[in-house]
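step: validate -> pass
step: tokenize input -> pass
step: predict -> running
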Amino acid sequence: MAAPELISLQSLEGRLLFAVPKKGRLLSASLNLLEGADIQFKRENRLDIALVKNLPIALVFLPAADIPTFVGEGRVDLGITGLDQVQEHDAGVRELTRARRLSNEWSPDPNAKPQGCETVMELGFGACRLQVQVPAKGEYVESKDLIGKNIGTSFVHLAKEYFARLEAEKEGLTNGDAAAFAGRKLRTKIIELSGSVEAACALGVADGIVDLVESGETMKAAGLKAIDTVVDSSAILIKSKAPSNPAMVELIAARIGGVITAQKYVLCQYNVPRTRLGDATKITPGKRAPTVTSLEEEGWVAVSAMVEKKRIAPVMDQLTQVGATDILVLDIHNTRSS
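step: predict -> pass
step: emit ->
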């Protein structure tokens, strides 16, 4: 069996770089989204770069936590990651900027490439919450009870900002003062953990944790309970502030947006007497307006309208009640909207 051909830097020239989570909870849904957007590629074993066959794009498979950094620094143009990861990256940038300003090392470069990433759209999957968790049978009831304690987390920068605000409130500082307080040394100790954060309390490493929660079952099994939410998160599409090919970014965003819309809607088609058309279109107004065409049979019209998938059963019931017949529901694989 021949060894896979290595991808050279030359083969990336002229291609828009699109970062995709290489593993974890976002990978499968991200690949389904790319397939729906007709982004055709084959990822060779052990390679983290795949050339797209039908578009001038290269997919770069990266840890979700690293994608905001690569996009924010303009190393890649687009990326799929979690809002929690973007906010953690942004909090880290704020901390670094404060430190440089305090040490007089910071001086803006007017010719520098714009830094940071912008959210293009929410993708509708990967919902989770970054929560403060404590032992269910422990003494801590509110987050402020953890001030001065040990906190285990892989979201170090968000945890620091969160407890900086709590400490500022306890000191009686206003919102304006809180920004300055953020640069001071925390009383609360933030302990960076890269995995198995939920075990930190049971092992005596931390008094509480800040970690991602999806169903909450893992936390319950570890004897933990949530006492506050730091960030409500889901998967998002982000772009560089200075993409190499803005037109291609817009094209990919339109394709992905079409897939997301198609996942939420179905096409409902039916026939209805013209005298009941007003009642029927109130039930199926469509995204903008329904499509109405005359039938060969006098006094009847055919209607097509997009309906939210989760509402289709009661919509069909209501259409039947107003005299609609021949009701069909069709899947939508992709769409475009202005």
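step: describe -> The longest strand covers residues 224-233.
step: cleanup -> pass
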